[in-house]
Amino acid sequence: MNAPVSAIEQLLLELPDLDWITDESRVTRLSSDFSWFSPVLVRQLKDKRADVVVRPRTEEEIRAVVGACARRCVPITIRGSGTGNYGQTTPLAGGVVLDMTGYNGCLWVRPGVARAQAGIRLGELEKQTKPTGQELRCVPSTYRSATLGGLFGGGFGGVGSINYGPLGAPGNVIGIRAMTIEAEPQVVELRGADAMRMHHLWGTNGLVLELEIALAPAHPWLETLVTFGDFESALHFADKLAHAPGIVKRGVTFFAAPISDHLAQLAAHLPKGCHTVLSLVAESCEPAMLQLVEAHGGTVSYRKTAAEVQKSNRTLMEFTWNHTTLHALKIDPNLTYLQSGFVPGRHVEQVIEMEKLLGGEQGEVMMHIEFLRNVAGLMTCSGLQLVRFSTEERLQEIMRIHREHGVHINNPHVNIVEDGKAGGPLPPEVIEVKKRFDPLGLLNPGKLRDWPVKAAAAAA
């Protein structure tokens, strides 16, 4: 007798013209992201992978894959370029990885707004907006490879959030076009707050096809490194620069010693043991910035105009946010990181307090903070502190110490949405979106506590 044909084999037979990837090594690579930043997630996810990967290029192909998977109850994990850090693109129940990078068109650019398909890389989208004098409001440090859909589904903010807040702040995302996961998929347009009920949920409650996002006026950005011998002088300079209303900026980053010692590509500009402030400031605002540098006793060790950055194709943006962690891990693979939020108005005080408790040049926690506006528009900072990893128990203790001192922790060492970013049960309106767009519970099962792996696995 012939052996029964598996659900995955049925998909390949039903849709032979699609770009299927079955090679085991490629499937394994496309079943992972940058979760290796966390030794905890490395342990938890080491054996998890998809059965197959598919890379559709049109909405019709996406619809065909989704419908075929829904009819067979095959789990679907949506993927962009895999630059996230939480194992969000790692399937816990096997099934299909839906790689969206082939669905990557820019649909249009208008004053203040652009619309594009989810698989477009952010750097490519900005190439379309720059000729109109506009740029993206906030981009991650991985903007060259990260996709628009990936930023929406798993990202927080980035360069530019100092002006416009995180991506989830009202007005940054205007609308999305999403597909339901069912035998006959439906396509729905969601606007404003309704659209944000799919944001930062790791593709667990909807398949986003297109996004309409707000744009910012583009400026020629001057990129600088300013070094200091004193922690508090550097921190106060960064805070004053972030708050200066007359200085147009796109990013302000603070590195406490010894983080600068881990940035090998910038070593010629960073004296050993220095504290550093990295900034992107409009070229016209350089004189005002230099006044602040002088007032706080800093030294400009690196300076590149926008034209020089474009010519060299090296930008300091790729040393900010979680790119800092990536560079540091190349020097010391025993490091990991935290994600923290400080209280507006108390953020400088809290940063100093945590540095005294856990930091210092030989401390466990190295202070790296990014200045931004929160969703209420208040200037504060988020931490992406580097941690000298010893044990999982000690890592939990370090996070507990932060919480006890009023510092919010978004735990980057878990792969359950409610345990990390959400920090608790999901709001009822988000649950309703999940029920509406994924009635069979096939999207990235196991990443939401109320839709466990076992349900999808049993169905498959």
Question: Mind summarizing the main beta sheet?
Answer: 8 strands, antiparallel
**What's the tally of helices?**
16
Total strand segments = 21
Indicate the low-confidence ranges by residue numbers: none
What class, by secondary structure content? alpha+beta
State the helical fraction: 25-40%
Strand line-up across the major sheet:
14-11-13-12-18-19-16-21
Task: Tell me, rounded to a whole number, the average pLDDT.
Answer: 95
Shape: globular
What is the straight-line distance between the termini? 23 Å
What percent of residues are in strands? Answer: 15-25%
Radius of gyration: 22 Å
Give structural notes.
30% of the residues lie in helices and 22% in strands. By secondary structure, the protein is α+β, with helices and mostly antiparallel strands. The chain contains 16 helices and 21 strands. The protein has helices spanning 7-14, 24-29, 39-45, 59-72, 122-129, 148-154, 161-164, 192-195, 231-243, 286-295, 306-312, 323-331, 347-358, 392-404, 428-437, 453-459, and strands at 20-21, 52-54, 76-79, 96-99, 106-110, 113-117, 134-136, 173-179, 187-191, 207-217, 221-228, 249-255, 275-282, 299-304, 335-337, 340-341, 365-366, 368-373, 379-383, 386-388, 408-409. The strands form 4 sheets. Strands 14-11-13-12-18-19-16-21 form an 8-stranded antiparallel beta sheet.
Descriptive tags:
460 residues; alpha+beta; eight-stranded antiparallel sheet; six-stranded antiparallel sheet; 16 helices; 21 strands
